[in-house]
Design a protein that fits this description.
It contains 17 helices and 20 strands. By secondary structure, it is α/β, with parallel strands linked by helices. The termini are far apart. Bound molecules: nicotinamide-adenine-dinucleotide.
Length: 498
């Protein structure tokens, strides 16, 4: 990528300059030995230089978080959430600016970026309800003896995030973890590090005390340093399964609690009685939204029996999705090459390309990295497009004769994020809900993301660790339970219960 930049003479400087970390309420210089250019997938423009932080930079962020922790964690939660009421208002007020930055660095369309910020707002709204959800319990367990439970913060925690949602995935962890009294170090994806900086400014304006939230920029080396750092108590990770495994193993080896969400291969089971128009629209939107770079995107469609009419409609819908108009770019040239290679291999193995998104260029944005929507039919279950995460706007159609065959294909996947069934028959829908090996199941829904307060998290190799990353389920991860037993009647005699 550096070579590509030096070969180009139309861009002289990065639009946002050299990036800084955010430590103890200030943007601080990074002591780096390497710098990674941040390139907009929309048009190849050079957005920033991201220096890779040194271990000393991480030490400084952890020290700031540790210093802020006592006052922050002891502040009553009803006071802490007042900051998140203000943060929610500031997200609303700055929605357009944040959405434009998300689109610029990630390549998704502006309207998809707006939806991403709206999701950040919903996540923050949930965090403001945490006082109602974490109220403890108290019971007189013996004469004059009370047992009480309280939720306390874990301490200094880390959040490591991927490129595909530069603001939403950070906000899966930031409002809940902080409202519950923790201080955080976040490591943004080196491909999209800009939006998190704007989020830091909004948190600061909302009144978050210095040191509670800190950003350390870097790549895989910084992830390793976070897993190993003795001052960090818990690590949350969202990214590919390969790295989720490494992070889960490394962080737990260092005796930290860890929740690591991985990749996905999501199956949509389409039955012959499915409502054709709605099904086609949902399948096309699910596989192409955010250019297929969603861990909840439809990737494989299992066609049960004769659903040819629905497949025809899916192709019509797919042709209405145009790169550079209502379809964004994929993250970089490596992603475009990888996605197109998957399509070509499937074609060589006998699959039929019904809609072909390869070799796409958007006029005027020749340095952008676009792949058009792609529909591949007659995919065999053993082909790579049927089993591997493609992470592009591609749907692989696998044809089977029975619903049990379709479920067997879904169950054989090592992943387990999402699965969905399209049918008008309630009994078939229940049959699939009971048997799908996925944490999030949909009926006639292309992207079955549970909305707050329901929690987000997959099964199998889509998630390592206990609990989910958002909603009520995240409370367990971000807190420790304190149990106190208190006696107020010293005159009472001692029995086995006191
Ligand atoms: P990635 O795994 O390449 O990177 C994620 C983070 O890990 C980044 O911060 C990166 O700097 C770091 N990293 C990369 N390689 C590393 C290594 N070898 N060692 C240590 N750290 C490393 O993921 P990505 O490409 O940024 O994001 C796409 C992936 O994330 C897809 O697989 C997608 O399914 C997944 N994802 C999953 C969910 C979910 O909820 N399960 C949500 C969003 C994205």
């Amino acid at each position: 990528m550096e070579t590509m930049l030096s070969e180009r003479d139309d861009i002289a400087t990065a639009k946002y300059g050299r990036m800084k970390n955010y430590v103890d309420g200030e943007f601080t210089d990074i002591t780096a030995d390497r710098t990674i250019p941040v390139i907009s997938p929309l048009d190849g423009s050079w957005l920033a230089d991201m220096p890779c932080s040194s271990p000393a930079d991480l030490d400084a962020a952890v020290a700031a978080a540790q210093a802020a922790l006592p006052a922050w964690s002891r502040m009553p939660i009803k006071e802490r959430v007042q900051i998140f009421f203000r943060y929610k208002y500031l997200l609303e007020k700055n929605l357009q600016e944040l959405a434009a930055l998300i689109s610029e660095e990630n390549g998704k369309t502006y309207s998809e970026a707006v939806a991403e910020v709206e999701k950040c707002i919903e996540l923050t709204e949930f965090a403001t309800s945490l006082p109602q959800l974490i109220a403890g319990e108290v019971l007189e367990v013996s004469k004059g003896v009370e047992c009480r439970t309280e939720r306390t913060a874990v301490g200094v925690v880390a959040s490591i995030v991927p490129f595909n949602f530069p603001a939403m995935v950070p906000n899966w962890t930031i409002p809940n973890a902080l409202a519950l009294g923790n201080c955080m170090i976040i490591k943004p994806s080196e491909k999209v590090p800009l939006s998190v900086g704007l989020i830091a400014l909004l948190l600061q304006e909302a009144g978050l005390p210095d040191g509670v939230f800190n950003i350390v920029n870097g790549d895989s080396h910084m992830v390793q340093a976070i897993c190993d750092h003795p001052g960090i108590e818990a690590v949350s990770f969202v990214g590919s399964t390969k790295v989720a495994k490494l992070v889960y193993q490394r962080a737990t080896h260092q005796l930290k609690r860890c929740l690591a969400l991985g990749g996905a291969k999501n199956h949509l089971l389409v039955l012959p009685d499915a409502q054709p128009e709605m099904t086609a629209q949902n399948v096309a939107a699910s596989m192409s939204g955010c250019a297929g770079q969603r861990c909840m995107a439809a990737s494989a469609m299992v066609a049960v029996g004769n659903v040819d009419a629905i497949i025809e409609r899916i192709c019509i819908e797919a042709r209405l999705i145009v790169p550079g108009k209502n379809l964004g770019a994929v993250i970089d040239q490596a992603a475009k090459t990888r996605i197109e290679k998957y399509i070509t291999e499937a074609e060589e193995q006998g699959a039929k390309i019904l809609v072909d998104g390869r070799n796409y260029t958007v006029p005027g944005k020749e340095h952008g990295t676009y792949v058009g929507p792609t529909v591949i039919d007659h995919v065999r279950p053993y082909m790579a497009v049927a089993t591997e995460e493609i992470f592009g706007p591609v749907i692989s159609i696998i044809r089977v004769a029975t619903l049990d065959e379709a479920i067997a294909i879904e169950n054989a996947s090592p992943y387990g994020n999402a699965a969905s069934v399209f049918t008008q028959n309630g009994a078939f829908a229940r049959y699939v809900i009971d048997r799908a090996s996925a944490g999030m199941v949909g009926v006639n829904v292309g992207v079955p993301v549970p909305r707050e307060p329901f929690s987000f998290g997959g099964w199998n190799e889509s998630k390592f660790g206990v609990g989910d990353i958002t909603g009520k389920s995240s409370i367990e991860f971000w807190t420790r339970l304190k149990k106190s037993t208190v006696k107020w009647n010293p005159e009472a005699g001692i029995n086995w219960m006191s």
